[in-house]
What does this fold into?
Amino acid sequence: MRVNVTVNGSAETVDDVWEGESLLYLLRERMGLPGSKNACEQGECGSCTVYLDDVPVCACLVAAGQAEGRRVRTVEGLAEGGRLDPVQEAFVEAGAVQCGFCTPGLVVQTHALIARDPDPSDADIREALAGNLCRCTGYEKILDAVRLAARRKATA
Amino acid sequence: MDFLRPATWADALAAKAARPGALPLQGGTDVMVELNFDVRRPAALLDLSGIAELRDWEEDGPVLRIGAGVPYARIIDELGARLPGLAQAARTVGSPQIRNRGTLGGNLGAASPAGDGHPPLLAGGAAVEVESAARGVRTIPVGDFFTGVKRNALESDELIRAVRVPPAPGPQYFAKIGTRNAMVIAVCSFALALDPVRRAVGTGVGSAGPTPLRAAAAEEFLAARLDWAGRGPLDAGVAREFGELVRAAAAPIDDVRGTAAYRRHALSVLARRTLGWAWDEHRADTAREAS
It folds into this structure.
């Protein structure tokens, strides 16, 4: 089937999409956007988190056909004008990346958290990131990065 | 596989009548897992996520009518004050990303005995509004909706339109056992609803039987023994007996998440604990009224 979807601001048409495939597969395998990671395929890990019409979701649990006519923003779409988003910069500076596989999902979910709540408590951060697993278990640095990104946003 | 994408509710009912084997798809948080792991290959997917009226809730006389496509995140934000038990259960569903997609309609359609939405709907006296093109609307009390493990009372041409549930007339609580707060399928769960006006008690037990279930004997016992008007301290013996009756109502199995014996024990504890919270709230309500 054909799917029309706006991805990172660009209106796209994709043909020969299998009816049972996920938005994650569509993004990675058909549109050349491998930033969203394919890890668990059951919504457990959050590595494929993307915005669907401004709401963060697990792309692996959205059917590709459900994205018809809607807007998707992936980790590739966060940087603007060749400059990383402040959340991405904070992850780099805080050393919140080990193997990196969970990072794109954490960055998108953190981006959504800070947009909604510019001054999250630690409990808020833990709750917001509860669906994003880091199997390197580098959670403390990740929390540092989220706090840093929030501070940057507050003083920007 | 076909991907059916009706734009209106009428089109959706017509599509389900024409293709009874089509699998309804709402937030995808259950269905897509089965597709991704190739454990299910339906002839067609019936995507209901584009139907605007399913995403609304409204007051309809004495009840709240929650469209089958309202995600848990919105139930928490928009209905939490009026349906606190359901909101507490919704907060335990998956993760923020899952709560942005998962719906009560999907929970009821999947009809898992572990569905987090089911115990508070049982305790709160909810009904499921279903519809078919041929026979129109029927309303099924939620206690009659679950017919077996992952089976429900829907006919093959019917779709879930909404859940009808009265706003909480009194304290409501939900508690769930799992290895962590997020991303947990309940080992067991329990919902309690007190109705101080009717002096009635509602219960819902999850993950401890082939279907979600009510503990009817526990409800009757507690309703008769609570000091509704006097609002005195909770009698420890009454609380203990309530827990025992909830334990007796459960029919759990041993599985990968826990043993039957553990589930029975845990349910007696959850029942006692939620009763303590609910009774404290009931007593505090008096204090507020008196002040």
Q: What stands out?
A: The CA atoms of residues 86 and 120 of chain B lie 5 Å apart. Residues 260-290 of chain B form the longest helix (31 residues). The first strand of chain B starts at residue 2 and ends at 4. Chain B has eleven helices and 13 strands.
